[in-house]
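call fold(seq) -> tokens
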Amino acid sequence: MKRHTLVIAALLLLTGVWSCKKEDVNGITPGGGGTPGKVSNVIVKNEHGAATISYALPGDEDLLYIKAVYTLPNGTRREVKSSFYSNQLRVDGFADTLKHSIQLYAVNRSETAGDSVEVQVQPLVSHIQLVYRNLTVRATAGGIRVRSLNPYKGDVVIVPLVDSMNTGEWKSLDNIYTSDSAIGVSIRGLTPVQKKFALCVRDRWLNHTDTLYATLTPLQELIINKNDYSVYQCDNDTKMSWGTTVDLMWKGLMSNEWPCLYTDESSGVATTFTWSVGTSPVKLTRFNLLTRKEGALWYSKGSPRRFEIYGSNNPTHDGDWSKWTKILTCEVVKPSGLPLGTENNADNVAASTGFTFDFDEDTPPYQYLRLKCLQNWMGSYFIEIQNMSMWKTN
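ret:
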């Protein structure tokens, strides 16, 4: 009899432990529990395309979370949840400045929702509308230049279309995904023939703005003949290592092979080297820099991360910086964001095609260029360049 009593007690103890663990893991208590109360003292702070709702929680001990339920103007039903550790939540996805009804529910650990509290929000002008209001498009070398302002850095997508044949058949160009406050993106690869363009702005909830239309003729863009390049040696330029020279940047091998331009690894200051792009100044449009892969890694060792481009038409061999004008600040962005020494397929694809940067359309023509490497992916100054291609317009 005593042994049976001990067995029953042990089973009851195990059952209790299992029940506690189940509640701890899931935060849910199956069945039971009354209906939770309502939130109170609701305060709404309207934002651009969104609103933050603050409230006082009900006093239910088994409260699990508060949820907001609402429907966007495009018919999408949304639910936003906030745990009982917080006293606010954010509703978003709005593309207008009208009033919208939000239903707030308190939900307990048995997933029972209490009665709703209706709240009115009236969002400020959405990010996509702010971007659309400032949206401009103009012809540029080899394509179009899209500009706008995104003052509150919202996540937006600019959707460009082209009617190349003027037949009303619109085809997609590359979407522009950005949260930059100042947007300036060139879309290249278009022939210098008059075309119709259409652009709108959307967000991740598929809200769209109106459409901006423009008829433009892209300017002709030409790749600069690398036979026109030449080294312009300045006294304060960085020394090269391993017998390499600056002209390997355009005379070297293209397939990630040795040798390539390779500056002094021991340099304790920013790396610089100088070259000419021809016998007279040219209107530069963009360039593509291909670095060298080290083992299995592209973003490694002397692969440039942050660097600047300077232009001059009257340099001196002493390297006097007063003769030079900074015309571009560049930063290579690793698509995956993975730490140093780890890369994925997106990183490999981006690096293997080289890093392309556009010159501002207002940049005057230059004959001489100077690159200053501020930081490589190791955090030092030396740089490896397999190849440099540059484009110009007439």
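The two ends are 103 Å apart (CA to CA).
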